[in-house]
Structure formats: C-alpha cells, structure tokens
Write a structure and sequence with these properties.
By secondary structure, the protein is of the alpha+beta class. Helix content is about 50%, strand content about 20%. Strands 8, 9, 10, 11 and 12 form a five-stranded antiparallel sheet that branches.
Length: about 850
C-alpha cells in the first residue's frame, strides 16, 4: 500500500511538472528582452481574477437583473485594461509623488469641498427635500466601518477608490495642461502669418493618377514599415488561417423536396409558371457551346431538340431541370474596336458613327479615328480594343451587337457606361450553341448534412501531417480559405461572433497547430495558427494590407519624379502648357488662412498653405513635389484678417483636449511589449521605464501640498506659488528636505512662476528639478526655455529647448518645443536652422498633433531659403 501511495505521489509530481512545462511554453517568446532602462511589470493571474470579481460584484449590485452576459464579457476585458492603465499611470504618479492624503480624502468626503460623486449619492439626500445632507456622511461611514463584509461597505470603498484614482490623475493632467505656454517670440513669428488671407491659382497632378504604373516590392514594404514602426506597434496576437467547409448536401437526406420538385416538372407547366408558383424555385437562362456542356447533361444536349426537358437531377447542392429553347450557330468569341461616349444621347452617338463611317471611306482606320477623338475630348470619350472575348464577358447589348452582326460592320450598343460605337474586327469559327432555360431549387443543410460535414472536417484536420499542406489540401477539397486575427485584449475572434472557445484554443496553441472542427454561426471551420505576433512592431505579412496605400503613394511619387527628370517637365514655362501636356487639374482657391489644415481639391497639402502665404502677389512657383501632388501655385490675391487671438486660444484648447481625452497616454504604450496571458491562466507582463533616482517618498508632505494643489487647479497661481498665512505655497514646499514631494512642488512652482511672469524664479525652481519621467523630464527643461525666451535670453533658451528634445520619442510634447526652437532661429533670421528643425517634426514625429503646423511653417520658410529654386522668373 505504501509503495502504491509513493507511486501515485511520484506520478502526481510528474504530471504537475508536465503541466507546468506546457504552461511555461506560452507565450513562445520572452518579455525579458529588456534594455537597461526598462523593467518588467507583472499582472498576476490572481490579481486579474480579483479585479474581475470586483467589477462583477459592483455591476451586479448596481444593475441587478439588468447585468447581462454581454456586459459580463466586456468586463473581462475591462478588468485587464483597468489594471494595465492603473499600473502605467501609477508608475508615473508614484515616481512624481502625486498622492491623495487622508486630510484631502476627509475634506472631499465630509469637509468644505465635498466631491460631486458623493453629493449625488442618493443615500445622503434628505428624504423630505431630496437635497444633499452633508451631516449624514460621517455617521454613514462610521456605521459602514462596523460592517466591512457587507455589500454597502464594498460599494462605498469601490466609489472612494475610484474618486482617489481620478483625483490623482486630475492632478497630473492639470500640470500637463498648465505647461502649455505661448512665448512672445513664437507669437510674433506666427502673427505675420495669421494676419493674412490669400487666394491662389493651383495646378495639380495627383500621384494617385500613376498608381497603376507602379508595383511595390517586398523590399518597399519592409523599408516603409521600418521607417514607421512606431505607428504599427501591436500587442500579442494570433494570425489564423481558416478552411471553411461548406455544408455538403446529401441527396438522400432530401427525398421529400426531390419528390415535390419532380411532380412540378412532370406536370407539364411552363418553367416560368413553376417559378412564379414557388418562392423556393428559381428560373434562369443561359447557353452552352459543345465544349462547355457539363458531362452530366452532355448526352441530353447532343441528342436534344428545342422543347426537350432534362431532369430533375441533383448538382451543386440543388435539384435542377433544364429545357432547350433554341439551337443557334454563333461565334464562340469576337473581337471589337470601340469608342465609348459618356453622357450622350442616341442621336449624338449616331451622328458620331456617321462621321466615323465617312472618314473610314476616305481610307482612315477606325482605331486611329477613335484614339484621336478620345484625345480631343478626354472627358467625354474613351477608345478601347476588346481583343478576343466571349458573349458572357461583356454587357448584353454590347455582346449582342458584336456577335449577331458581321465583321467589318460598324454598330451601336448602349450599356450602363454610355453609348458605344463598335467596329466588329473579327469572329472566330461559328459553333453550335444551345440556348436553354433552367429551374433550380437550392437546398438548406439538415442536421444530418451538418453532422456529415463535421465528420468530413474532422477527417481533413486529422490527415494534415505537414502544416504546409493546409492550403493545398483545402483547395483540393474546394474549401474556402480565409484569414482571421485573434487580438490579445479581446475575448473572441474579430469578425467571428460566438468564437470564445476558438479564441482560447488560439492563445493556448503553438505556431502551425491545426484545430479540431469548430461550428461557428452555423458554419464549419478548421483553423491553423499561421503565425504568432509578438508584442512590438507588426509583422510584415500582417501590415501589408494596412501600409499598401502609403507604399503605393511613395512609389507613384518616385515614378512621377523619374518622369519629371526624364521629360524635363521643369522647363515648362506656362501654366497652360503644363496643364495641357500633363493633363493637370487647375483650381482657383480663395480664403486660405494659416489656421486651415487642408485646402479644397488638394486635401492635405498643408505645406502649400505656408508657401501660398509667403508668395508675393503675381509670383508663381515651378513644379513642386508635395505630399500627394506635383503642383505649381500662383498667388492671385491677399487681404488682411484678424485671427491671431482665436488661433492661439484654439491651440490652447486643442492641447487641453489632448490631455482630457487621454491621448497623451499613448506615450505610455510605446514599446511596452504587452503580453496578455489571462486566457492561458498565467501572469501577464509589460515593460515600464526604469527610473533610477532614489528620492524618498514623504507622504506627510502631501497633506501640506493639498491646498496649494487645489489653488493650482483653479488657476490661482499666485496663491499656489506663495501661499498665505494659513497655507504653504509651492515656493516654500520646494525647499523642504529633498523628496518626491519637494521636487513635485518645484515643478508646480516653476509653472506657476511662468504664468505669473516671474521668469527668473521659474528658472530657479525648475533648474532644481531632476526627473526621468516621460513628460516632466521634458517639460521642466522646456519651461525653463520658455522663461529664458521671455527674458530675451534666446541662446540660453535654445540650449534648454535642445536639452528638452534630446533623445526624446515623446511625440505629444517634444514637437511643442521644437516649434519654439524654429521660432527663435526664424527671429534671428537663421532660416536654414529653423527649417531643419521643422523637418525633424515632419519626418520623425509623424503622429504629432503639431505636425500640420510644422508643415505649414516649413512651406513658408522654404520660400525664404529656396526662393530662387522654387519661383518662376
């Protein structure tokens, strides 16, 4: 007995080891590919389950019977995303020392500044008046403290934790919002541009006109993806190849439908009447040549005559019957030359046909006349050469006119595209054609059909020994191949509802694994894990469809440049000549202002806006390569406008929106390599930046900072900075013993001083700040640059701005300071240096909210620096 127990224990241990080993194989890559400046943050599976249970409990108590399964499924994802967001933002908040003290919490619960969320709680309303009763809060909390396992206590702590979380985030965001500052140098530079409204005449050649002339290579896709890898970052995912096995209809499972269909065919009624009597039976007309007749009906057609009926018979998941209507002799293929006339009447088309016939009598060829006519009227006419085609390959009237008339004849045909003048060039040999009418009754699969199809799918999956055979075997069986993706933060496959089990299989399987059959939404599939997408840059095979339009655009632009150089387009002297030779578009565009981000008819050519503002009236550019067009513009008018204040107010509003809507948090996702293991019931991971400094945390200072923080959020910068008899200001708090809180006070104080125009104090406070976080390490230097710029110390300001942007990949805040560098260089008339910094935003910060502004300024300075190269003499 003892030996048996030992053996069982050993087996249990081996099984546990084996299970652990299998679990350890997922994910099949390691998050530990970290650099020296990053750390791995863990979301334990237990932590995830705890968060999910907490959300479930809260929603059940809040929604009761209205808490549906769909909401529960959403909350599975919400639990995980909540933990990710909390850990990412808390990493920043904890590092900076942004906290909620007990004194602050007491104040918003039952003090002088009660939080709106508490005021709205129906528990604290006076039952008679319905108004909030502040005296009821403390007794309520005291009572709850005695019932910590109760639902009310859970709901209360859930609400308070959310309030604390949101208040911490509000403090962080208020600092970010207040960091926005317009310097006088920057304002003066833009004021000249904002005072104008101009009009231009533009000629444009879209690169997209040449899309069909280029074919991107694999290398083109790789190069583009490498250049733009920051834009195409993904979390873990699975790329699935699916074989859809259409349900096989088995005739013997549909005897009842067969007998009913047969009775109708044998009734002697016309096919038209049978089809009108039954909504399940469809009628159609078609034809066969001898070499195209299906084997099943070949003998019937070869021996048959008009009026003969064949069937019913079973094919293509339906019962069918056919009747020969006529037997004719027609060419199998025809060849035609034609001219399409758009938006023309019959009389107009006939007139052009008569003109063609006269010119042909004089010895001209139809195709030469058609080509000349198309060139003379490019918007109205288009010539064509069909080469050999079958009757069914063209619209009926076009085919009938070509097949039923003789080679050499000129005929008319009307299609949905317009009237065609057709010269029948040739017919191949005449062949016997069987024209017939058919009836068919499509059959829906029964449960037995589906069971048989599932068995077929199972056999297909089991017989794939080499995963490389998946596609070829599927095609051989006439299965339909499809592609799907399983995303890490979902609970099912996108585009496949009710696919939770498949999703779980996908994230618990290795590359090239073949699934058992899955029945999803009534369809039967077998899946293969085609590839595993690691967190990071999207793999090329997955990115291709997304990046193809941009790659083609780049190739088309390069193609146009090549044509430009080969054909000396730069020698065209007149706009009219360029328009005629290159078939360019011509537009008159008025009301152009610097505040615009696009122009009518030319879309996102924002650089053109800056260039238009820089030109003198009457000046015209050479042909310029823009983002999406080759273009030339001539300035035709200019008038003053007063929109400076609105522009700068709008900039401030946009900055606040970027913070309020959470877009700034996209910086926290850069290179985080999120690995989501909740489906695998394991811990999940992602990367966070490693902050090296070791300033102590002094939470007791948070209570002293709270009044100043409140004043700061209310934009009472003087009170926040200097304090009063009853509260300490940031200036005093910044000089406390070094800690996270004293450093935070210096950041607050520096921004206060900047807004109060106490620029020397701003520099003094901010220069004491040493931080590595993702925003304020940049802002503390950039704000010093703002203060020095306001004092006229432009070289010192440049040094601070350059230090702020050095090695920064923060596309939200860094371009803000690059624009200020460009403004200083422009004020010093060092335009080449200004333009090189604007180019930095254009090329390295394509996701930046400031990109369009940089492009407009780039266009403006291009005129300053390259006038001789871009202006026609």
């Amino acid at each position: 007995m003892k030996k048996i127990i030992i053996l069982l224990l050993v087996l249990a241990a081996l099984t546990a080891c084996n299970n652990e080993k299998n679990k350890g194989e997922f994910p099949p890559y390691k998050i530990s590919k970290t650099s020296a400046d990053s750390i791995v943050e863990t979301i334990t599976y237990k932590e995830y389950l705890k968060e999910k249970r907490k959300i479930d409990r809260y929603n059940k108590l809040l929604l009761k019977d209205q808490y549906k399964a769909e909401e529960k499924e959403k909350n599975e994802i919400k639990a995980f995303t909540n933990l990710i967001k909390k850990k990412k933002i808390n990493h920043e908040l904890d590092y900076l020392g942004i906290q909620i003290s007990k004194e602050e919490q007491d104040n918003y619960m039952f003090g002088n500044n009660i939080h709106p969320g508490i005021k709205q709680n129906p528990v604290f309303r006076n039952p008679k008046t319905g108004k909030f009763n502040p005296a009821s809060v403390q007794p309520f909390i005291k009572k709850l403290e005695e019932e910590k396992d109760s639902d009310p206590y859970f709901m209360w702590t859930y609400q308070i934790n959310n309030i604390n979380k949101n208040l911490r985030q509000e403090k962080y965001e208020s600092l970010l919002k207040s960091s926005f500052f317009i310097t006088e140098v920057y304002s003066d530079w833009l004021t000249n541009l904002l005072d104008k409204e101009v009009a231009i005449k533009a000629i444009t050649l879209p690169y997209s006109d040449y899309n069909d002339s280029v074919t991107p290579t694999n290398e083109d896709f790789k190069t583009f993806l490498e250049k733009n890898k920051n834009t195409y970052q993904i979390n873990e995912r699975r790329y699935l190849r699916a074989a859809y096995i259409p349900p096989r209809i088995h005739k013997h499972f549909h005897e009842k439908e067969y007998k009913s269909f047969k009775r109708l065919i044998e009734s002697g009624q016309s096919f038209e009447k049978i089809a009108s009597m039954s909504p399940h039976i469809k009628r159609y007309s078609s034809f066969y040549y001898k070499n195209t007749i299906p084997q099943k009906t070949q003998a019937f057609f070869e021996k048959g005559k008009p009026g003969d009926v064949f069937g019913p018979y079973f094919t293509k998941n339906s019962f069918r019957s056919i009747k020969i209507e006529s037997i004719t002799y027609l060419p199998e293929k025809a060849w035609a030359h034609h001219l399409l006339l758009r938006n023309s009447s019959f009389d107009e088309a006939n007139k052009v046909k008569e003109q063609f016939e006269k010119e042909i009598k004089k010895g001209e060829k139809f195709l030469d006349i058609a080509k000349r006519y198309s060139k003379e009227k490019p918007n109205k006419a288009e010539w064509g050469d069909t080469e050999w085609f079958m009757h069914a390959e063209m619209e009926k009237d076009f085919s009938d006119s070509t097949f039923y008339n003789q080679p050499g004849e000129i005929v008319l045909a009307n299609t949905r595209f317009g009237w065609h003048i057709i010269k029948i060039f040739d017919h191949d040999a005449e062949r016997k054609r069987y024209n017939f009418t058919g009836l068919y009754q499509p059959l829906s699969p029964t449960e037995k059909d589906i069971e048989a199809t599932m068995e077929e799918a199972r056999s297909f999956a089991e017989n794939i020994e080499n995963p490389e055979e998946f596609d070829s075997k599927a095609v051989a069986n006439n299965y339909i191949l499809e592609n799907y993706e399983a995303m890490a933060l979902d609970t099912k496959i996108r585009d496949l509802n009710n696919s939770q089990h498949l999703y779980n299989w996908a994230f618990n399987s290795k590359k090239h694994a073949i699934s058992n059959p899955y029945k999803i939404n009534g369809k039967i599939y077998v899946f293969k894990i085609e590839a595993i997408g690691e967190p990071g840059t999207m793999p090329l095979h997955a990115a291709k469809n997304l990046i193809e339009p941009f790659v083609i655009k780049e190739k088309a632009k390069a193609y146009v440049k090549q044509k430009y150089n080969e054909n000396r387009w730069d020698t065209y002297q007149l706009l009219t000549e360029a328009i005629e030779r290159l078939n360019m578009n011509e537009y008159n565009i008025t009301g152009i202002k610097f505040s615009q981000n696009s122009l009518a008819n030319v879309g996102g050519e924002t650089e053109m806006i800056g260039l238009a503002l820089a030109l003198s009236k009457g000046e015209r550019t050479k042909l310029i390569f823009g983002k999406e067009h080759l273009y030339s513009i001539e300035k035709t008018g200019e008038k003053p406008t007063g929109s400076q204040e609105r522009f700068f107010d709008n900039k401030k509003r946009i900055w606040k929106t970027i913070i309020s809507n959470g877009r700034y948090r996209s910086i926290f996702n850069l290179y985080d390599r999120l690995t989501v293991n909740k489906v695998r019931e394991q811990d999940s991971y992602f990367l966070l930046p490693k902050y090296a400094d070791t300033l102590p945390n002094k939470p007791e200072l948070n209570a002293e900072m709270y009044p100043a923080e409140k004043a700061f959020r209310e934009q009472k910068y003087d009170l926040a900075l200097k304090g009063s008899k009853s509260i300490k200001g940031f200036q005093q708090l910044a000089h406390e013993t070094p800690s996270k809180q004293s450093r935070l006070a210096a950041i607050y104080g520096g921004i206060c001083a900047l807004h109060l125009q106490e620029y020397q104090l701003a520099v003094q406070l901010l220069s004491s700040v040493k931080t590595e976080d993702r925003f304020f390490s940049i802002i503390s230097l950039g704000a010093q640059g703002d203060a020095l710029s306001q004092q006229g110390k432009l070289n010192e300001a440049l040094n601070k701005y350059k230090a702020a942007i050095k090695d920064s990949n923060n596309f939200i805040i860094t371009p803000h300071y690059i624009l200020k560098i460009a403004a200083i260089y422009a004020s010093l008339e060092e335009y080449d240096k200004a333009i090189s910094h604007l180019k930095l935003i254009k090329e390295d910060y394509k996701q930046a909210p400031q990109r369009r502004e940089a492009e407009k300024l780039y266009g403006f300075l291009k005129y300053k620096t390259q006038k001789n190269e871009i202006i026609k003499n």
